[in-house]
C-alpha cells in the first residue's frame, strides 16, 4: 500500500500564503500525486495534480495563477504553494496519489488519500 502524509496547513488572512507538503511512500510506483479539497457543504474538488513521469501539471480554474504544484523527487515529496489566498479557499486539503494515467483531477480515480490538513483563510 501507498501512504501519503500531508503537512503545512494553518490559518492565514486574505492575501496570505501557505505551502502544503505531501510525502508519499512507494513514490516510484505512482503516476499522479495531487491535491483535493473539501469545504463544508461543497463537493470535494480537485485542486492540482502532477504527472510524475513528466513536467505536466494540472490545476482547477478556481486556483489557476494562485496555486502551484511542484515536487522534489529526491525527497518523494509534492508541494502545493498557495498564494493570494481567499476565504473561499478554506477547506480540508487532502494529498492523493494513484498508479493509473486517467483523469488527473477526478476524485474517483485516486486510490490513496491522506488524512487531510486544514487551511483556514479569514477576511
What's a quick, concise take on this entry?
The chain is an all-beta fold.
Can you walk through the features of this model?
The chain has 123 residues and is mainly beta. The chain has no helices and eleven strands. The protein has strands spanning 4-7, 10-13, 18-24, 32-38, 45-51, 57-59, 67-72, 77-82, 91-98, 112-113, 117-122. The model has no long low-confidence stretch (mean pLDDT 96).
| Helix fraction by DSSP (H/I, runs of at least 4) | under 10%
Number of beta-strand segments: 11
**Helical stretch tally:** 0
Q: List the secondary-structure elements in sequence, H or E.
A: EEEEEEEEEEE
Give the overall form.
Answer: globular
- Average pLDDT over all residues: 96
Q: Major β-sheet, in short? A: 7 strands, mixed
Features of the shown structure:
123 residues; mainly beta; 7-stranded mixed β-sheet; 4-stranded antiparallel β-sheet; globular
Layout of helices and strands:
Elements: E1 4-7, E2 10-13, E3 18-24, E4 32-38, E5 45-51, E6 57-59, E7 67-72, E8 77-82, E9 91-98, E10 112-113, E11 117-122
Parallel strand pairs: 2-11
Antiparallel strand pairs: 1-3, 3-8, 4-5, 4-9, 5-6, 7-8, 9-10, 9-11
